[in-house]
Amino acid sequence: MILASAISSFGRYWLFMKRVFSVPDKWRVFYSRTIFEINKLGIDSIPLVIVISIFIGAVCTIQMVLNTSNPLLPAYSVGLATRDIVLLEFSNSILCLILAGKVGSNIASEIGTMRVTEQIDALDIMGVNSANYLVLPKVVGFVLFMPILDVLCIGTALLGGYGVAIFTDMITVSRYVYGIQAFFQEWYVWYGIIKSVVFAYIIASVAAYCGFFVKGGALEVGKASTNAVVSSSILILLMDVILTKLLLQ
Amino acid sequence: MIEVKNISKTFDDGRTVLHDVSATFYTGKTNLIIGQSGSGKTVMMKSIVGLVRPESGEILYDGRDFLAMDPEQIKNLRKEIGMLFQGSALFDSETVLGNVMFPLMMFTSMSPAEQRERAQFCLARVNLHGADHKYPAEISGGMQKRVAIARAIALNPKYLFCDEPNSGLDPRTSLVIDELLSDITHEYGITTIINTHDMNSVMGIGENIVFIKEGRPGWVGNSRELFHSDNKDLNDFVFATQLFRDARSYIREHNRN
Q: Which of A168, A178, A198, B73 is the most buried (most CB within 10 A)?
């Protein structure tokens, strides 16, 4: 029963994606809506990303200092480990898990409310491809802006660690700065960006799917919003394993 | 003219909501679908506009079989359809003017200035002034219905569908909406189908009434014939209140139309 339901949902998701990724009715409308969604889903997320990244960067640095006090380890290992944690996992996987809560629930509740108030039916009756009109700008806008959030997250997280070096005596600034530059691999940045783009697609498309097929009223919209966050979080973790295996091996 | 021929609809849970229903809806007339809650009139309207697909039968828009159309033909037909939803279904994120301009923006090559002019004309036609820049949440239910009518007529539709246009409105505002729908129907020669169980609407604008009883066609006629019908199910539904029973007695006694 559960398996049949899962297969049914999987099939319906891809049929929905087929409708989403069709040619827009009017390109001018699509461009303006994409810009609007970049602003709403991407730019509005910047304050959250900055706050979280600074604190997580600082905490990572403190944890590294406390856990790498072994004299056999070089002093720059704190900066190096902080940088690699941020580049490899925090700036993409963890950040996207957090954004699944903010952006995913926003998309699911917005589209779900449009469904239960018959606004989507109104679009369909007019002859507008509602899935394409509502969802494609969100997916494209969020996917396009995600690399910027990823890079911003890396920068501010490292800045958080830098703050620890400045405001505490746990590590010197020079050692921290040397550490975050030591043995730098550019590929790690691209690896993070690739992952974040995939996760952004998962967040936007799964949330839109959950909202689009809501039946009922306000209670069901709330459930759809929760389902969107839970489902996209699980899929992000699953894809994290797969992409790490594929891209880093 | 819209002809519905022998449509049936059964949902996944096994409930058969429409049993072999046939009806004809005429151009330039206000056609009403009436019936008790749960009788299948909303499913019938949703079947006609394509939100629900019946298992069998034909739906002919001026002879064009809707159920046999390919997606492109359906898309083109939908440009000829306007619909007023029970809850108005205005787009929350758009202003009143933006809502009315929306179909013009999507389906015409008008410039923004022309779209604005046409939208303002439609809003004036429904007697709505000074609300252009307000959002749907900032205006009353009656005003929302009028905006929805303005949006529905923006593209000069050939067919207008109204699902419970008077629900949630006071009697005075209901009357205004009924008169507006009737005027627009006659003025533009539209095939208007109104789904209602508001008896004032039935008496006031019912030029062609289709009564549905438990998913089956029960009676067809107009508001004058309604008073002389001997159909028990219809009479139980329409003349449920003492006021309407008295009105029927009076009309029958004085043999009035």
A: A198
